[in-house]
Amino acid sequence: AHKPIIFSGIQPTAVPHLGNYLGALHQWVKLQDNAAEGTKLFFSIVDLHALTVPQDPAQLKKWRKEAFATLLAVGLDPKRSAIFYQSSVPAHAELMWILSTVASMGYLSRMTQWKSKLQLPEDTTLDDSTARAQLRLGLFSYPVLQAADILVHRATHVPVGEDQRQHLEFSRYTANSFNHLYGPIFPIPEALISPAKRVMSLKEPTSKMSKSHADEKSRIILTDSPAEIRKKIKVALTDSEPSITYDPISRPGVSNLIEILSHLEGISCEEIAADFHTASLRSLKEHVADRIAYHLQEIRDRYITIMDDKTGYLESVAEEGAEAAQANSRETMRQVRDAMGL
Ligand code: ADP
Ligand code: NA
């Protein structure tokens, strides 16, 4: 059996938000802290993925560093986890090319990410010439890079939020296609879907909280001050029903607040709804804001210390992480080249 190898990544397209934390980063830290002897852990700032939509170079540079600092601030420990920028490990892009020679166009064209990023209707197909003209190759083939990220580390487990299930399925399919043609090089990676429900946007609670939403009040970022957290929760979109109930379908706004609280405190949504049943919406919001602020306090303090550091700490951690990731991926590429006759 393979020794467990855990890989996951996050895009540096803004400071990570509460959805990233509950859906991903918090789980990464728990996996790290409970990892069995011999488990290897790789966590990447996937900056090449950020390029699938236009980026301002100076802004991207800033976001990369902020995302890196966030991973350290939430509790990833460079002694146990390799933390690195994807672009520092060229084997990710090299394996992407190789996988693109086995990946299915039909499968990729059915995936929804390119349609949603271009804001095209779900039922758009590549026969549509407008869609073809707007679509850049990198946005279309993004899932192949994601498969390469995972497979280049021979990852056995990939902790992600619920929203990434479809992409992981594509990675498994592509690994199987490769193994079928060239021999059993890649373990078939398993998704470790976070127990947290998707955190929804505070402004539009029927879509997920995301870095790509223009309205900054739609998300709590991990570096928000307690005052900023209170302000955003106060204006979060809810409804005007008189009592507090947990009902994600007909009351998505209130239910999102309850789910956030549930995950932070380890109390069930039903229990929270019962406790607050006769309380005002205002007091629920105040309580949720206080608890978020409490849970993010330590992360925020560490983040500020890391960003203020003048000793090159972050850069040296990034260099060590890249070296560990290079060493691990070099071994994969040796096997891949050998199997393919390169
Ligand atoms: P975003 O979608 O905000 O750009 P990424 O694509 O970089 O975030 O995702 C990083 C990780 O965060 C992934 O594992 C993803 O599943 C998780 N994630 C992103 N948004 C949410 C959300 N609203 N709720 C739960 N998990 C999320
Ligand atoms: Na995403």
UniProtKB/TrEMBL annotation:
CDD domains: TrpRS_core. It comes from the Eukaryota. GO terms for molecular function: ATP binding; tryptophan-tRNA ligase activity. Keywords: Aminoacyl-tRNA synthetase, ATP-binding, Ligase, Nucleotide-binding, Protein biosynthesis. GO terms for biological process: mitochondrial tryptophanyl-tRNA aminoacylation. It is found in: Mitochondrion matrix. Pfam families: tRNA-synt_1b. Belongs to the class-I aminoacyl-tRNA synthetase family. NCBIfam families: trpS. This is Tryptophan--tRNA ligase, mitochondrial. The lineage of its organism: Eukaryota, Fungi, Dikarya, Ascomycota, Pezizomycotina.
